[in-house]
Amino acid sequence: MKEQLVEIKQKIEQQINQIQDLNDLQLLRSSALGKKSELQGLMIHLKDLPNDEKPMVGKLINETKQALELIFDERKGVLEEKALNEKLEKEQVDVTLPGLKLVTGSTHLLTQVQEDIEQFFIGLGYEIKDGPEVESDHYNFEMLNLEKDHPARAMQDSFYIDVNRLLRTHTSPVQARTMLESEGKNIKIICPGKVYRRDDDDQTHSHQFMQIEGLVIGESVSFADLKGTLLAVIRHFFGSERTIRLRPSYFPFTEPSVEVDVFSEDGRFIEVLGAGMVHPNVLKMGGYDPQKVQGFAFGIGIERLAILKYAVDDIRQFYTNDVRFLNQFKGGLEK
């Protein structure tokens, strides 16, 4: 029996050493050590041996199986290492080759302008407030001194959803909501966002555009504060040497009201925004006593700023998603 086990072990070991494939090695392991193997057959015939020989023969069979298991495992390790080296050789990467150039996007020009203005006002201590684009007539008009049938409503042809709801025509409703929420406390906010008016789209008009409005309310707020704020933001955006001109105007929610012009590089004054001191009626509806506090407000058109600074000849360029136009501003805003 011992000679037979040695012969089986040597035969299987020779077969193992000749195998070059992991699948073949697994098949050989199954046939050499499985239920139908010669070794398993010898275990079955143990019952036919004398009782005094069974322990010794059983021990020899188990030792042979353990030895073969070890040989199989060693061969498996060799073949796995060989397969890995072949794979690494086949998939070798030349690290000196140039990498792929990934095309990256950037924020839209209007978003860049908005964020630039936001950061400027945050530096002055302003908070950023937001509100719904679908507004009630109450907040969009009535809280801003525009009662029903007020003739000034004709200045803003609106998109009505029903008799009481519309797409906001300015971000001023955010100011009205903030005044009510503040319960008479001082306010220093800007309100950026999209607004909607029933304009025919052409080179200079769009039914949708973007605004940044500002509101400051306090006990010692003056018209001089308003002018200084407007001059500071214009010089921040257009350059430190720019001058502005304030012209009397009319807005139902401010009194006095002004329109602001910027002196352009070609020697002309160009209108960029409207502003004024908050109307006493608006202060009262917002929960403030106009005898004790004053405020100023302003509204800046984001598209207007971008058009003037970057000489954009058509407002529709901002909304047609032409990458030839957008790629000009991937590097961010110039200072």
CATH class of the largest domain: Alpha Beta
Query: What's the Cα radius of gyration?
Result: 42 Å
| Average residue-wise pLDDT | 86
Structural class, judged by helices and strands? alpha+beta
Strand order of the largest sheet: 1-4-5-9-8-7-6
**Could you say what the CATH topology of the largest domain is called?**
BirA Bifunctional Protein, domain 2
Q: Can you say what the CATH homologous superfamily of the largest domain is? A: Bira Bifunctional Protein, Domain 2
Question: What distance separates the N and C termini?
Answer: 95 Å
Strand portion: 15-25%
Q: Can you count the helices? A: 11
What is the share of helical residues? 40-55%
Largest sheet: 7 strands, mixed
Subunit structure: Tetramer of two alpha and two beta subunits.
Family: Belongs to the class-II aminoacyl-tRNA synthetase family. Phe-tRNA synthetase alpha subunit type 1 subfamily.
Cofactor: Mg(2+)
Binding site for Mg(2+): 255
Describe this structure in words.
One of its GO terms (biological process) is phenylalanyl-tRNA aminoacylation. Pfam families: Phe_tRNA-synt_N, tRNA-synt_2d. Tetramer of two alpha and two beta subunits. With 335 residues, the protein is α+β, with helices and mostly antiparallel strands. The chain has 2 domains: 2-90; 109-329, BirA Bifunctional Protein, domain 2, CATH 3.30.930. Helix content is 41%, strand content 19%. The protein contains 11 helices and 9 strands. The protein has helices spanning 2-18, 22-33, 38-44, 54-90, 109-123, 137-140, 172-182, 223-238, 280-285, 302-310, 323-326; strands at residues 127-128, 134-136, 165-167, 187-196, 208-218, 244-251, 254-263, 269-278, 294-301. The strands form 2 sheets. It has a 7-stranded mixed β-sheet, sandwiched between helices. Strand 7 and strand 8 form a beta hairpin. Helix 2 (22-33) runs antiparallel to helix 4 (54-90). The longest helix is centred in the first third of the chain and has 37 residues, at 54-90. It is elongated, with a radius of gyration of 42 Å. The model has no long low-confidence stretch (mean pLDDT 86).
